[in-house]
Amino acid sequence: MKNVLDPAQNRVVVIGGGPGGYEAALVAAQLGADVTLVERNRCGGAAVLTDVVPSKTLIATAELMGDIAESGSLGIRLDDTDTGEASDSTGGRIRADLGAINTRILELANAQATDIHHGLVRAGVTAVKGQARLTGRRQVEISPADGEAYSVEADTVLLAVGAHPRELPSAQPDGERILTWTQLYGLAELPEHLVVVGSGVTGAEFASAYNALGCQVTLVSSRDRVLPGEDSDAAEVLENVFRSRGMNVLSRSRATSVERTETGVEVTLEDGRTVAATHCLMAVGSIPNTEDLGLEAAGVQTEESGHITVDGVSRTSAPGVYAAGDCTAVLPLASVAAMQGRIAMWHALGDAVSPLKLRNVASNVFTAPEIATVGFSQADYLENSDEVETVTQTLSTNPRAKMQEITDGFVKIFARRGSGSILGGVVVGPKASELILPITLAVENRLTVDQLSSSFTVYPSLSGSVTEAARKLHHHAR
Hints:
Layout: E1 2-3, E2 11-15, H1 19-30, E3 34-39, H2 45-49, H3 52-69, E4 78-79, E5 86-87, H4 98-122, E6 126-136, E7 139-144, E8 150-153, E9 156-159, E10 163-165, E11 178-179, E12 193-197, H5 201-212, E13 216-220, H6 232-244, E14 248-250, E15 255-260, E16 265-269, E17 274-277, E18 279-282, E19 286-288, H7 295-298, E20 321-323, H8 334-348, E21 362-365, E22 370-375, H9 378-383, E23 388-394, H10 399-403, E24 410-416, E25 422-429, H11 432-435, H12 437-444, H13 449-453, H14 464-471
Parallel strand pairs: 1-8, 2-3, 2-9, 3-6, 9-20, 11-18, 12-13, 12-18, 13-14
Antiparallel strand pairs: 4-5, 6-7, 7-8, 10-19, 15-16, 16-17, 21-22, 22-25, 23-24, 24-25
Helix pairs in contact: 1-8, 3-4, 3-5
C-alpha cells in the first residue's frame, strides 16, 4: 500500500455516496474544500439503487393501479376490446406486468445514480468507486475497485455508510422465494401470494403496493397493530383499509421461521400456525454498515446496536470525524441523512449552522392512504394533555374528497393551550406527503392556529381541511 499524505487544507473525505454522503460532498465543494467521496457501488448509494427511489417508483405504479381499480364509482368503464363488453373496475381487464415495472424501476434508479455522479464531478468532487476505512484519527485507507490501495490524511471525515436489511437465521433470503426489499426488483412475475413479515414502515409500504398491484398479501405483525411507531389513529385507519381491500392482516403473530417448499414458502408463526404462500418478504429492520470501518482505531463510539453516536451537528466522539444517515441512530430518512451531511460540513468548515431539530422533521409512510407526520405526536399529547389541545378533521366531509371518492383519512393538529402555537400534526390521505407541508411550515416558524386558518386555500381542495382543522382550535380574542 502506498502512502499519500496531502498537506492541502480543508481536505474532506466522505465514505459513502448515499444522500448523507453526496449532499455533504456538494456542500464541502461549494465551500472550497478538496473533497473525495468513496462509494463501493454507485453514487446515490442504497437509497437510490435499492431502497427509496425503487420502492417509491413501485408505489407510484401501484397507486395508479389502485386508482384505476377503484374508478368504477366515478363512472369510469373499461371496455374489453376483445369482446366489446364493458367491465367494471374489478373486472380483471387490468393487470400488472411486474417484469416491465421492475425494468423501469431499475432504469430510473441507474439514471438517478448517473445524474448524482455527474453532479458531483461538475462540483469538483473526486468520486472514487471502492472501499474506505479509518486507520487512525482522520487517517483513511482508500481501496479503489480498479487500483492500488492508498492512505490519505483528512482534515474532516464524514461516515455515511448506510445500513442493510436485517436477516433472521431461521429465514435466510435466497433472492427467489424468500426476499429482502433489495431483492424484490429481480422478480419477473407478480407473486401469486406474498407474505410480508414485519408491519413497520417498510413492510406496510410493500404490503400496500403489492396488494394494489393485484397480489394476494398476508401481513404478519408481531404487534397489536400495523405501524406501531406511527400515530395510533392513523394506523387504525390504514389497517381497516388494508382489511377492506382483501389483505390478510395477522396481528400479534410473530414469525419464527420461513422455509422453501416445492411450490413456494411456508411461514411458521410463534403459536404454531403456518401460512403457505408463493413468496415471502422479510421486512424486520436494518443493521448499520459499521463493521470493519476502523471505528475503534479512530476513537469513534457506537451504540449497542452498532449505530454511530452523533450530536446535533453530526459530530462523533472523535475530533474531525462526523457521521450521517442510517449508520447513525437518528431518524432513518433520506431527508434527515441529507440534512445531517450538510450540517456536518457547515460545522466542520466554519459556515453558519444550527443543530438538527427532529421536531421539525416531516416524515411520510407511502401506503394507500399515505400517513404524514411532523412535530408533536399523539403519544406526546397523551403525556401533556393539560398543556396541549388537538383536533381531528375527517376528509370525508371535504368537497374535493367527495369528488374524488376519498372516504378514508383525516387532518389532525396539535397546538399549545393558551397561545395556540402549532406543535405538530398528522395527515392521512392521498398525497399526505404534500398536504403536510403547511403544518410543517407552521411548526418550523411557530405559527398559531389562527395564523394558519387565516390563510386562503383554494376551493375546493384537500388543503382546505388543514385550515378548517386549525379554525376549530381558534382562540377567542379578548
